[in-house]
Design brief:
Layout lengths: L1 E4 L5 E4 L5 H8 L1 H6 L2 E4 L2 E3 L9 E6 L4 H22 L4 E2 L4 E2 L2 E7 L10 H12 L6 E4 L2 H10 L3 H8 L7 E5 L2 E4 L13 E11 L8 E10 L2 H17 L1 H7 L3 E2 L10 E2 L1 H20 L3 E2 L5 E3 H7 L1 H5 L7 E2 L6 E4 L4 H9 L10 E10 L15 E11 L4 H18 L5 E7 L12 H17 L4 E5 L8 E7 L5 E10 L1 H5 L4 E2 L5 E2 L2 E6 L4 H12 L12 E5 L5 H13 L4 E3 L6 H10 L4 E5 L1 H6 L2 E5 L4 E5 L1 H15 L4
Parallel strand pairs: 1-5, 16-20, 22-23, 29-30, 29-31
Antiparallel strand pairs: 1-2, 3-4, 3-5, 6-8, 7-8, 8-13, 9-10, 10-11, 12-13, 14-15, 17-19, 18-19, 20-21, 21-28, 22-24, 24-25, 25-28, 26-27, 31-32, 32-33
Length: about 650
């Protein structure tokens, strides 16, 4: 017998070689029917994997993220088999699960896949799935694996296998199909009831644009057809909310091939929106004791060598700028923190001067691969709402909690109420990914966990998600469509103070190292605006939207009164404009609706006589004819209901 410890601490005694499915069955038949994957001693296993020793077991169903991951990864195998049958000679590469579904990268040779081919691929994949084929893992030797794929003339799988160690290579079989795979599958293909090919795109092998471009087939699957239908409806809504579409319609930003890929151009309305967001955060930061600083867009290469950014991100940065002076090299700034360290270093500090809180809306540049660029969410030049706090060890806990409060204020004021806090720590098995002493990492990780617990945050710990110089607290926000986004991050860093030899004089008259906190509630202005656009569908909070009202005169003879109304609104600090085009009021209303302007103020003969405005809300609600002062009160009340106090 072996002892199996469940997540709630309960211990089950089962026979050696029992599977996770058997353990589930011993708990309840209902659970057993729904189990599709499992984790044993921190290793993902199949529900049918024999358990041979004592250990901890977590059972996954479709309702768990890990269960969905196994479900979608398994479907990628089924779709890969369908592609092999439909496109003779296709070469398979990798097919992982992603946040929503899966993809499989394939080399089609001279063949192509377009949207018209999707139904045929779906039909073939479902036909395979209905065969209820078991997923079976088996170990193979390195030579056997290499020979298998050399016979298939698949250089991609051969390259993957050559980088693996003999004894750690496994194949997954189902039906007549075999694939190189680490594992993590559902019991059989029959559980898959609905499959949708979502899109195709180009993707370079191993993400390197020097390699061949492959075809990436994106898909998603579900255990019920109803769930696929609901997902497709959500997808349609997401298309309507696509920030690239809305950004163009609302005249917020654009891109130019002449300027360069991934370098957004902010139009007047977008620039006004950004400025309002910046002012909002600047006001909160001022109350919290931050000091604004400004740093240049470039720095000497040596600056980023010292910080460690060049070693970690040099390949993803723009190439060094060589000056006329021999040996002098500059880089476009990839991060603001090294510059802020040098600002700290420009003056001596004692413990009485700390904490120092330096904030900047600093623009940084990173050379993202062209295939990975996406609207405002993945760009090559972006502005971070960056700040760095230099404090003593004793001040760390309070400072970190204060940053949590500021981040919650920002998210709450912009309608992001549904979130999970993620404590991102290092992967102890991959120490080469990080810099600094292990003892400092332990202190930093514990400081974040302590602060998260004291603030009562609902948090999870994610291994391997830390920055290279320190652990962090990320806010994973769920938007109006139920999608998860990382917004706002706070990091504790003991390493950059060491690298830049930062110090302060303590009460003992000795020099000590400060602790550094990195924080960015928005993350980047570009990505934040993109997510805010999609979350709100372009219906921004009233305090933020560029134009809060549009005045619609019924005819030319009412334009003078419209001007009077505009002046009065400006005196009440309401942002408005007049549409005095020679068009019908009905057409003006329809166009104002498309521009998502919150209030339409219609002025005609009756309104002018009574010195009122006829108010129509975006969406069609008629508020009747009211005075400007009453309208101002209405606007103030709505703003105060969304804009939190800090």
């Amino acid at each position: 017998m072996i002892k199996i410890t469940l997540p709630d601490g309960a211990i089950k005694e089962v026979e050696t070689n029992s599977s996770p499915f058997d353990v589930a069955k011993s708990i309840s038949e209902g659970l057993a029917r729904n189990v599709i994957s499992a984790k044993f001693n921190d290793t993902t296993v199949e529900a049918t994997t024999p358990l041979t020793q004592d250990g901890s077991l977590t059972l996954y169903t479709w309702n768990n993220d890990e269960g969905k991951k196994a479900f979608w990864h398994s479907t990628s195998h089924v779709v890969a088999q369908a592609l092999e049958e439909l496109y003779p000679g296709v070469k398979l590469t990798i097919g992982p699960a992603i946040e929503n579904g899966f993809y499989y990268d394939v080399d089609l040779g001279d063949q192509t896949i377009s949207e018209k081919d999707f139904p045929e691929i779906e039909k073939k994949a479902l036909e395979i799935a209905r065969g209820k084929h078991d997923f079976k893992m088996r170990e193979v030797s390195k030579d056997e694996a290499l020979n298998f794929y050399k016979e298939q003339n698949n250089p991609y799988k051969v390259e993957l296998i050559e980088n693996l160690t003999d004894g750690e290579i496994t194949f997954c079989d189902h039906s007549s199909f075999t694939d190189l795979c680490r594992g993590g599958h559902i019991p059989n293909t029959g559980i898959i009831k609905a499959i949708k090919i979502v899109s195709v795109a180009g993707a370079y092998w191993r993400g390197d644009e020097k390699n061949k471009q492959l075809t990436r087939v994106y898909g998603i699957s579900f255990p019920k057809q109803k769930e696929l239908t609901e997902y497709l409806e959500l997808l349609e809504e997401a298309k309507k909310r696509d920030h690239r579409k809305l950004g163009k319609e609302l005249e917020l930003f654009t891109f130019s091939q002449k300027v360069g890929q991934g370098l957004p151009l902010w139009l007047p309305k977008g620039a006004a929106l950004r400025e309002r967001l910046e002012d909002f955060l600047k006001n909160a930061q001022k109350k919290a004791g931050y000091e604004m600083v400004v740093t240049p867009h470039i720095g000497q290469k040596e600056l980023y060598v010292t910080s460690g950014h060049y070693a970690k991100y040099g390949e993803d940065s723009f190439q060094p700028i060589n000056t006329p002076k021999e040996g002098e090299e500059f880089l476009l700034k990839p991060m603001n923190c090294p510059h802020h360290c040098e600002i700290y270093n420009s003056s001596p500090y004692s413990y009485k001067d700390l904490p120092k809180r330096f904030a900047e809306f600093g623009t940084v540049y990173r050379y993202e691969q062209s295939g990975e660029l996406h609207g405002l969410t993945r760009v090559r030049g972006f502005t971070q709402d960056d700040a760095h706090i230099f404090c003593t060890q004793d001040q760390l806990n309070d400072e970190f909690k204060n940053v949590i409060d500021l981040t919650l204020y920002v998210l709450g004021s912009l309608g992001f109420e549904n979130f999970t806090a993620q404590v991102s720590v290092r992967d102890l098995e991959k120490p080469e990914k990080y810099i600094g002493e292990a003892s400092n990492w332990e202190k930093a990780e514990q400081a974040i966990i302590d602060a998260a617990e004291e603030k009562g945050l609902n948090y999870v710990i994610e291994t391997g998600e830390a920055a290279f110089y320190g652990p962090k607290l990320d806010f994973m926000v769920k938007d109006a469509l139920g999608r998860n986004w990382q917004l706002g991050t706070i990091q504790v860093d003991y390493n950059l103070p060491e690298r830049f030899d930062l110090n302060y004089k303590g009460s003992d008259n000795e020099l000590h190292r400060p602790v550094m906190i990195h924080r960015a509630p928005f993350g980047s202005m570009e990505r934040f605006v993109a997510l805010l656009l999609e979350h709100t569908g372009g219906n921004f909070p009233l305090w933020l939207i560029p134009k809060q009202a549009i005045i619609l005169p019924v005819s030319e003879k009412h334009e003078k009164y419209a001007e009077k109304v505009l002046n009065s609104l400006e005196n009440h600090e309401i942002r408005a404009l007049i549409d005095n085009r020679n068009e019908t009021v009905g057409k003006k209303i329809r166009e104002a609706e498309l521009k998502k302007i919150p209030f339409m103020l219609i002025v005609g003969e009756n309104e002018e006589a009574a010195e009122t405005i006829s108010v129509r809300k975006h969406g069609g609600e008629d508020l009747g004819s009211i005075s400007i002062s009453k309208f101002s009160d209405l606007v103030s009340k709505e703003i105060n209901s969304t804009l939190k106090s800090f």
